[in-house]
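Consider this today:
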Amino acid sequence: MAKVKIQGHASGTGILTVTAPNTSTDRTITLPDETATLSTVASLNDLTDTTVSASDPAVDTNPSATGHYWVNKTSGECYVTTDVTTDANIWRNVGRGGANVPPLYSVDFLVIAGGGGGGSKSPSGVGGGGGAGGYRASYNSETSGGGGSSETALELVGATEYTITVGAGGAGGSNAGSNGVASSISGSDITDVTTVGGGGGATKEAAGSSGGSAGGSGQNTGTNTAGTANQGYAGGGGGSSAGGGGGGAGEVGEDTTGNNTGGTGGDGVASTITGSSVTRAGGGGKGGYPDGTNSGGSGGGGDGYGTITTGENGTVNTGSGGGGTRDGASGGNGGSGVVILRMLTVDYSGTTTGSPTVSTDGSDTILIYNSSGTYTG
């Protein structure tokens, strides 16, 4: 039979007391078959697989294993990591604390507003290219427009309806083009994600309109109108014989220098939120003299023309600007915007309106809204 020995401490004088349970049933304490030290856990901080912090965990918060528990002591939110991949960890929110409150889950987004229409001048003169619609992104640390940082993914609530608005492109004009229309994700329990419509290309001797990215200025106007911070870039300035290029989400619209040099639309921004790299939100090219094509920015910006003909439209559902033109011919229309959501397939509810395109990429489901609708978590 094994023996139990209580070893006194040579210098200690305290008494170790083991109190019997208040029951007539025998109780057994089984010690581990190894050398060990009994300890007292005073708080969650004492556990090696738990973190108590004033902030939420991030994708690059690298725990040692799945199942790590994280408590945000400021908000009261709690998270468990379900995938441990260096700098790409997945943390699941375990809810707001009430038994009847649906859990939160993370949804990445790309929201692009409609692009601005290209400009012209009636009866004689040259307009600028339309600016791209405002561009905001959260997926995979990809940048937003105008050089803005990647944003924080949305935390949606189950059984809650969210409104998806996809903005139309602005109309090209025989003088100034019109601005595009805002796109957004909105709901009662989130801060809305809204992007500003692209600025219209200007007419002769006028500055481009402000917008997500700004429209290019008209002939004889060297002004660079600014885009919206963290959504898009400025439009280009016009020269003596041509307008400026519309601003893109990834680049300033080009100035026209000399008589007719430059004036291409600013490039858009690439995203892999749909599983492959796609560039969107390019600025429209200038109108100008002499005859010729003036390129729109990559990502769908419409070409501008030196001939008396309608400017090229921005590509639909990219939020790109329309191309400028001259002498009263209409500038190209801006491309309509787009809203894209990406979430874990296990979180996807399948409840939508507006007929988004639904696809999968690995463990994720992707919704592409080319027109307005809703998503219910």
In short: Residues 105-377 form one domain. The two ends are 62 Å apart (CA to CA).
